[in-house]
Predict the structure.
Amino acid sequence: MAFLSKAYFDFFDELESNNNKEWFDAHRAEYENNVKQPFKELTTFLIEEISRFDDTVTRDVSKCIFRINKDVRFSKDKSPYKLNMAAVFGENGKKTEKPSYYIHIGNKELFIGGGMYAVSKEDLNKIRQEIFYNSGEFTAVLNKAEFKKYFGEIQGEKNKIVPEEYREFLKKQPYIANKQFYTGAVFSREEVVAEGFEQKVIDCFKAVKPLNDFLLEAILD
């Protein structure tokens, strides 16, 4: 079954032009019925499926889904609502600091991925060391057919200057300069509302799991 429908995207299209509390309150029923509840059902389904191959993810749906309300305290854009729904699947849901899985479905950005987006300085040092000493294993992860099919490469910001001990290695493995290690597979609206989209999401998550495993092993050492 398709969890999300055209009405899901219609809501966000209208919200983009009417991003204020008055409009949102007047259309709250549409949000609840066409966006919030269907996305929660999709998230619940995904948790159960992910748990079949990764038992570290929390089963608490409420910990996984981000609120639609924006934190505008430090933003120039004071519009109060996001134009997407998103969820993180990991040990502590959206507060997970370890490798995890991510889904982001909005009116313009639609992608599925995983890895690590926010990496502490301590974890970054450990990951770089793991890549350096186990470069063959790391390369094998990136060369897996399913990883290449869905993601192609690792994304994320890079340091312009890497520690001296890695500068020669940088020529061999550019990812040693990364500050983030995440992936994203982009989908269309048509794919999201079509039958079988949830299986595509699971396939993406399975494809990114070897990278998650590599990163987790690095930070736990």
In short: Residues 197-220 form the longest helix (24 residues). Residues 99 and 212 are 5 Å apart (CA to CA). Strands lie at 84-89, 100-106, 110-116, 181-186. The first strand starts at residue 84 and ends at 89.
